[in-house]
Amino acid sequence: MRLVKLLANLGYGSRKEMQAAIRNGWVTDKDGNPIKADSKLAHEDILFDDEPLDPPEGSVILLNKPLGYTCSMKDRGRLVFDLLPARYRVRKPALSFVGRLDKDTTGLLLFTDDGKLLHQIISPKADVAKVYEVELDRPMTGGEADQFASGEMMLENDTSPLKPAELEVLSETTARLTLHEGRYHQVRRMFAATGNHVTKLHRAQLGGLTLDGVEEGQWKLLGTADIDRIFGDSA
Length: 235
Ligand code: URA
Hints:
Pfam families: PseudoU_synth_2
Order of helices and strands: HHEEEEEEHEHEEHEEEH
CATH topology of the largest domain: Alpha-Beta Plaits
Function: Responsible for synthesis of pseudouridine from uracil-516 in 16S ribosomal RNA.
Structural class: alpha+beta
Keywords: Isomerase, RNA-binding
Number of helices: 6
Bound molecules: uracil
EC number: 5.4.99.-
Family: Belongs to the pseudouridine synthase RsuA family.
């Protein structure tokens, strides 16, 4: 891809601005030598303003989402995109969420511009488990684990029963819940159906991928080993 188009697609600015950036010598090789618009340098060998270029098309980003941020491109209030460099909001192809988290849910959220990978992750065939840590308003009554595992639980307004889900009770009011699908407000609705109320919800794991080493509000680019972990076993 031509350098001007590459930089514009990464969100550094318009094509006109990128032509000017190249003319002004802001785009260089690793030794700081300005490069030309027809340069054939590899993506990883190019610097913009002395910084390595943002990740190329086909990347996956993991964010440890804090409370109060919305998974949306344009809602009012704080958006998860506010936690990434501003350029990431205007990249082409666009970064999409791989399944959303509610504004009041924290934890593991992925973004990618790789449509094929996105569909692989959310496809029922891949059965990528999602592990949630849950805090509840009231003690559980004891029947929740069987109800969630039954494969027969129907939520209001849904047209098919939920897939069996595994509940690990940690205390009267805390649990880990593993889901094999992703319906709207699923965890909150499941507990609401048992007469309880979720007060804290955190996604800790997606397949075999965890938030290890990524603090709340921080993000990292996933390498191929991390991406493979999504399709590996849940702990
Ligand atoms: N279930 C919910 O209720 N909310 C989320 O954000 C994710 C799963």
